[in-house]
Design a protein that fits this description.
The protein is about 65% helix and about 0% strand. Helix 1 packs across helix 2. The chain has two domains: about 55 residues, no CATH class; about 80 residues, N-utilizing Substance Protein B Homolog, Chain A (Orthogonal Bundle). The radius of gyration is 14 Å and the shape is globular. It is mostly helical.
Length: about 160
C-alpha cells in the first residue's frame, strides 16, 4: 500500500501517531476500516502498515486487528443492528466514517466482554469528535444507546 485515504476532518493530522493505548488502537482500527472501504481487502495490511508507521506496540496492533476482524466477521449483523436502531435513516444516508465508527463500537460492545459498555460508547463518541462532523457524535451516541437497549446490554 502506498497511500492512506485522507478524508478525515481538517483537525486530523495523518502524520501524528495515535496514542500507544487502546484509544490509539481504536483509531488505528478505524483508519484500517476506512482504508479497506476505499481499497477492499486491505484491512489487515492497513493495520500492519499503520502500526509499523507509527511504531505502535504489539498489544495495541493486536487489539486493533481484533476489532477489525470482528467488524468484518459480523458485518451483516452489525449493519442489521444499525438499520434497526437508525429510525428514519437509511444506511446510505449515514456518512461512511460514521457507519464505520458505529460498526467498530458495536463489535466492541458485543464481542469484547472485558470492556465496559460505557467505555465503548464513550470511545466511539471521541472517535466521532476527532474524525467526523461536529454533530455526528450525538447521532452515534443515540444509535449506540438504542442498540444497547434493544440488545439488553444497558442496565
Amino acid at each position: 500500500m502506498t497511500q492512506t485515504p485522507e478524508d478525515f476532518t481538517e483537525d486530523f493530522d495523518p502524520d501524528k501517531p495515535p496514542p500507544n493505548n487502546r484509544r490509539g488502537a481504536r483509531q488505528l482500527a478505524l483508519q484500517a476500516l476506512y482504508w479497506n472501504a476505499c481499497l477492499p481487502g486491505t484491512s489487515t495490511e492497513a493495520v500492519q502498515e499503520l502500526g509499523q508507521r507509527f511504531s505502535l506496540g504489539d498489544e495495541i496492533c493486536t487489539f486493533a486487528a481484533d476489532l477489525v476482524k470482528h467488524v468484518e466477521d459480523h458485518l451483516d449483523e452489525l449493519d442489521g443492528l444499525i438499520d434497526a436502531a437508525a429510525t428514519n435513516w437509511s444506511r446510505e444516508r449515514i456518512a461512511r466514517i460514521d457507519g464505520l465508527i458505529l460498526k467498530l463500537a458495536l463489535a466492541e460492545m458485543l464481542y469484547f466482554d472485558d470492556i465496559p459498555l460505557r467505555a465503548s460508547i464513550n470511545e466511539a463518541i471521541e472517535l466521532a469528535k476527532t474524525f467526523s462532523t461536529e454533530r455526528s457524535y450525538a447521532f452515534i451516541n443515540g444509535i449506540l444507546d438504542a442498540v444497547a437497549r434493544q440488545q439488553g446490554l444497558a442496565p
